[in-house]
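Limitations

Structures in this collection are predictions, not experimental determinations, and the ligand pose is part of the prediction. Treat each record accordingly. The example that follows, with zinc ion as the small molecule, is included so readers can see exactly what is and is not provided: the inputs are given verbatim, and the output is the predicted complex.
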Amino acid sequence: MAAKIAGNLEGCNVSIIVQQLQGAYERGQLKNALYQYWAQQVPKIFFTSAEVAISTQRTPDAVQSEEKLSRDVLFEPLEWFLCGGNPAAVFQQLQSLNNPPQLCGKVFKVGEPTYSCRDCCADPTCVFCIECFNKSTHKTHRYRMSTSGGGGYCDCGDVEAWKQDPWCDIHKQGLGQQSQNPIEKLPPDIAARAWEVLKIALQYAVDMLLWEQMGGLPQDLEPSVPQNTYVTMLFNDEIHTYEQVINALTKAINCESKEAVEFATVVDREGRSSVRYGNRKSCDEARTVIQKSTSSVRSKPLKVEVMHTSVCAHQAFAQKVLNWLGQVVNHSDGLRHILCTTALQQPPTGDPCVVERLMLADTALWKTARVQCHQIMMGSLLMDQESKKQFSVLYTRNYPQVQKDFMADDHDHGVSIISLSVQIFTVPTLARYLIMEHDLLAIVIRTFLDQCASCRHGRYLLDREKLQKNFRRLQFPLLDLKYVLSMVPDQWNDQLKRKFLNGFKIMVELLTSMQGMDSVTRQVGQHIEMEPEWESAFNLQIKLAPAVAMMAGWCATDKMVLIDAFRIVVKALLEIRGTADTVKMCKRRVCDQEAIVVDYTVSREPVSIHLPICRLLAGLYLQLGKHGLTFNSPELYGPLQPPSAMDLLEQPLRTLVMIAQVHAEMWKRNGYSLFHQVYYYHNVRCRAEMQDKDIIMLQVACAQMDPNQFLIALLNKFELMNWIEDVTEKGGSATDDLLRFTNSLVEEFLTFLIIITGERYVPGIGQVSSEDMVRREVIHQLCISPMAHSELSKALPENHKHETGMEAVIADVSTFKKPGVTGMGRYELKPEFYKDYNPFFYHYTRADQSKSEEAQLKRKKQEGESTACPPPELPALSKEFSSLVNVLECDVFVHTIRMVLRRVNSSRSRSWTEAMVHRALHLVGMALNEEKRLYQTSPYIRFNFVKKATEGGSNSLYSALHDLLGKPRIQNHADLLTWVIDRFDEVKDLKDQKQGASDAQKAKKVSSKSKTDAERKKKAEAARKRREKILAQMSDMQKSFIRDNLELFEATGTELSSSPSMEVEGSPMVVPSQYPVAVGPDRSPATHVTLTTSTCILCQEDQEVAAGNKCVVLAAYVQRSTALSKSRGKVLEDPDKYDPLLVSPDLYHGVHTSTCGHVMHADCWQRFYEAIVAREQRRALRFRHILSYEVDRGEFLCPLCETLSNTVIPILPPSSTIQPDSVSADISLSFSDWLDGLKKTVEASQRAMMKEEEDKMESSDDMPVLSPCPLPSITKNMAEMAAQGFQQLFEYMTETGAQAPYSDSVKEMMKLFSRATYTFGLGLDPNDDDDRVPITAWGTCAYTIRTLEWLLRDQGKPLFGSLSSRQADCITALVRVVTVSGSLSDPQTISKSALRLLSALLPQEPMKNIPCILDLDMFFTLVFLHVTISSLYCDENTAAGGTIRGVALNDKHLMHLVTAAHLVQILLAANFTSADTPMDTEETAEGSAWVKLFMAVRKEAGVQTPVVPSGWQLQTYVRESVLPFLRCSALFFHCHTGVQSPAQLQESGVSEFEPLCQYLALPADLSSLLLQNSGADVGHVVPHTIHSKWCHYPGIKESLASGPASLVKYPVEVNRLVPLPHDYSDVINRGSVFTCPRSDGDDSRAPTMCLVCGQMLCSQSYCCQTDLEGEPVGACTAHIYTCGAGVGIFLRVRECQILLLTGKTKGCFYPSPYLDDYGEHDQGLRRGNPLYLCQERYRKLQKLWLSHSIPEEVVHFMEANASFATIEWQHL
Ligand SMILES: [Zn+2]
Ligand SMILES: [Zn+2]
Ligand SMILES: [Zn+2]
Ligand SMILES: [Zn+2]
Ligand SMILES: [Zn+2]
Ligand SMILES: [Zn+2]
Ligand SMILES: [Zn+2]
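Predicted complex:
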């Protein structure tokens, strides 16, 4: 064996070691041998020098070599020895012995997606990993998705986790495999060695991690040559902030703050970090300084230790050993079982086993060591069924201690051993086993109780201070309790019963200690001085409530358990009540009825809102019926005396009355604390275990009492005895306050009666199912308004599985309305359910109540219905509660109602309110409904409301109702009154029928009924008429208001008067019948002139736009842009060297301009802007104010619409008013002569330049400059005719006087705008002398037009007529500025620019600074030449500011030349990979011309053409490719000339090509621009000599040879945001596999995807900060400067939200385009519904990005949302 090992090993070292180990093993000395070996080697590998010991000094090399050494020297020999051969092969072999896994067990990383099936999970902690989920049937169920917080594993295959289909397709394969002891499958020799090796390794690792003597090692690890180096080790805590740690470190070890940040990051991530390496003294010093500078009165100092480096080394190795063990057991079930057995084996010394030691030492370890320990536990113990059980027993046994340690610790729950609870307690069989055998329930509850309460005389007292301060840490046993109880047992045995009741008893002790907590006494006179603390009791209530409810649920499943539990609670209740001596009783009388009641005045004595014992009992009462028990079943009480109904009633009634009094504003002086408590008492999160249970308890009591006595008890407690006895009314001396209180209390009392008798939708009380209950909740929510899914689920209570049960009913009761591009989908109640609406629904808040009433009233009015909302029909009560309804017919009830009605009728009475009437009528309606129902369902009834209500003749309740008819004071309830009387008569008839009244009597009744009917109808009619009259009056008033304020309604439009700007306007000329042409001397007249007059938004004056007038401007925003870039990531490296004139067609950098379209006078704007600047300067002196815009960067918000702006565009008059079209008509110069002249100009200038260059050879640094030669020197070489034409073409028209003088203010604004494009567009300081200033202004015009063309194309809109008015105004203003800027700038500069452009377009000699035509964007070139060519021959003598005559003809020739060049560009860049299948189409002449040209230019340029396309294919390609250029040119000339656009281009879906050519004066067959022989000579052919120059120009060959990838592809496609996956879980998954690129392999906390380029970034984290302009910025901010020119759009993967950033300081969050099935987005993935990409919303984002609106949007958001201003966006 040994020989074989040696043979296979590379280095002999390892083989020697293995041999030694083998020898030692055989001698039984393996442990000694290994320890000796480690003692020597470990200190040599780890912590050997500062370079490996100090985290900030570690280099990748150091890390790597350490890693390699530990692998080669330490682990390699161990593995070879363990395997007895090549580990790789052996492990693989062992793996094949494993049973196919039945459990997935994949441990989740932070951020990994997890899935839970809402239909099938046993509890919400059961999850699938994405692989398993996708291969399971649950995909088609209702599922929830979330991201793991790290820890926890996939439950696939756990039969207890899922009610059905626990296996995915992968893990199904493991089914049916006989489970044999996995150790038996191992080869015996390996097994034997594994027992030893794993044991020694585990023992070593645990010993070392728990080693406490920092100065030295255990004896058997002491190295032979001791070293004397130490480190100062800094430990993490959760008390000190990053800043404090950084501060301390800079002092203690004298490091830069950047290094300190790195230390702090490591400490935070790993739990500790060595910060100094050296001798003992220096390390001690560092420790002292750190401790001193971090200790304060309030907090302990940071934990710092000085450690011997050898200890550190062994601990580092120990951590690696743990990892290694994890890997090893992953290979083999057998090895795992061995490790588990070792770990759980108690040593013979009786000490705890390894696992127990780790459990108890958990809080002593640092973060990474803890996490590693937990991971190995999960990977071994929890994956092995038998070990899991043993582990859980150990865990349960040590539970109290572990929780106690956690309480004293300061680390997060996630890195504590107690986070493993969820893995154990959620397994139902395990939980049940632990309850039965190890008393788990009692242990958990007792642990909690011991942590937060002290025991005195057998009663627990809660420790308020602990609850208040530490609840976050205290609460975990309560969560565990929820896990333990989550599965109700289906079978009980004696032991389970005993242990459960044991736990139940302790729970009751806990609840008893809460009963009566935080009691309050009404404050009279003075307001309370200090708000009492109330949150802790509610925190406790919220966490405890689910467990209590679940315990009650357990009790319900077994009769004996229920009875025993019932007794325990009753006993507790009786103890709380105290003895009869302490309860004072008294006698009360109301209308001949007498009752003995408890004498306790709520408004004077203490009352508490916390009554958990009463509520638990209420819950148990509801369960009795299930087991055939009644309230009085003797077996319920046994030896106990049954509590009286009064006992049950008293406590909850006090609470409810107090709350009624709070509503009546009687407790105002008790402050907010009480107010909050009452709020939560009703709130959806608490009410099930508070309010609802109190109502149930009252119903329980009521059902057992005489109704009259019950009502007297209530009236007494409500303190309404005086009211019912009419004392206040008679005495008439009541103060206003008292009257108000009493009235409110009467309202509350009546509401209370409605609730007690009407709330029956609780299974047990009414004959309803729990589904009915949810349905009713949903109906009432939707009666408030239609709701989104999330709103609705927020309003409904959740069970412990976070389910509301709403899905089961929602489709029955509502219809779903889908969302549009914004907003959410909503559910609307189906009309047939409105009849179930009850305005006094007990879960309504007051706001809900009034909103719902309003909504229902509005709806009923719209539908012309009666506005009454009568009490809905109710379900029957269950047997035990059937006597509840008797309240509605008892004497005291009838008396009370009659009393209310009588006071309403009495005109002098002050003690009535509308609300009272409403409730009284509602109650009468309820009584009638009840009587009606009983008549219909039961043969014999004792319900006599009608009889009692009609007794007493004119004094009866019935006649009191009639007296109300037509009374104006009950106007609002007239319809309800009508309904009540109708119902009354109906029930009366039923009653008469039932009693078999004689026919004669009937006839009499009918007549009397019809009489009352007639009377009532008369009154009702009168009421209706009055209502109508009032309505008519109101409507009149409204109309006259609008009439009077008509101006106000109309004068809201302050935008440009020409707002719908692409419509015909301005000149009254008739639309030309001829086809419109926008270019050349024959162009159509301008009929479409916009921006002619406007209103200044600042001074409101109208202003006509004319050259000499006051200048008006548009607020505008100039920004750098890469949106159109075809070379994503290419950055403008050095703006100083950037040439904005010769623009590359990949448009990697551009300057975009936008405007909000609001017009101001230039001087008005200047005053406005100066005021802002002054204000900000003043402000800056006082305090730093955060603005959404940066004044020092010239930014301001449009004064009208607050759109972000940083400059203004002057509005110039249209060109048609400056240059009459007629002037150039008579010039004649052919295209070829024109071309010839220009070519000569280029030649001559080049010659002149080269000569000059030769002259000054020495100063070669200066770039040679092309200077134009004078016009005569060109024309002298031309034929006479041509010379004359050429001369005329470039002649200035100064003498004609047609040129308009621009005012100074116009010139100044033009300069200002150009300067803005230069400074913001290139990121340079203002420099008016730079020649590039005007050029960037022209460039922004071309770039903006290109952007708009893309936008229109992207949305499939027609070229003309679909731009918004602000977009149209923007390019119109830009084009006007640009077209005259040539004549307003320095003519020399302009003419030089023209010459450079021409040298590129008509190349002669190759020049350094002139690129080949492939590298030129032709639309930019066209615009630039249009601007500059007029000044080509101008010199200082020519008056600046003039225009030449030949503008129109120049345009036409230019258009031809540039288009031709573009076509050659397109042909050269073509990349056909296959010829299309020949179609039946005949080859056209144009087609064959294209093929000819294609071959010719490519041959000329020397490119390979492997595939020759057909003529048709080529023609299609050319036409498509040239289209964007033509569209841009058409927009440009349209804005320039104002020529009406052709009708075809205003529709979408038509072929644009020919209309465009015509509009631009181009031939429809574009090949004729390049080839003579196609058809007749049309006089515009670019001769072959020029093609040839184009194709031979340097650079062409190189560009083409480098392949199609580097060339711009034609047609240039619109850039889009990266495609996103349909299912959001794919995005999450992408985020979870992404690791921080800077810290090797660590998870990124905030993975964020750039939607422009798709790159994933590690955002919001110190690790990925970089410096930008000397400031640290986060990964996103850094990225936008390379990817988006300072603007970015991101998807934050974990949060599922969009992040918009602009610059370093501005940003906002935006809803993501992912929606759930309910049409809602889910920021922060809080709800977890499956999310899918909504294409419309993503397109909206795409539009936002492409239209360059992100900065604007961000600022709008920041203005609207103050919290955005406080976020440090640059750190994202
Ligand atoms: Zn899985
Ligand atoms: Zn699976
Ligand atoms: Zn399922
Ligand atoms: Zn003005
Ligand atoms: Zn505006
Ligand atoms: Zn990072
Ligand atoms: Zn990007």
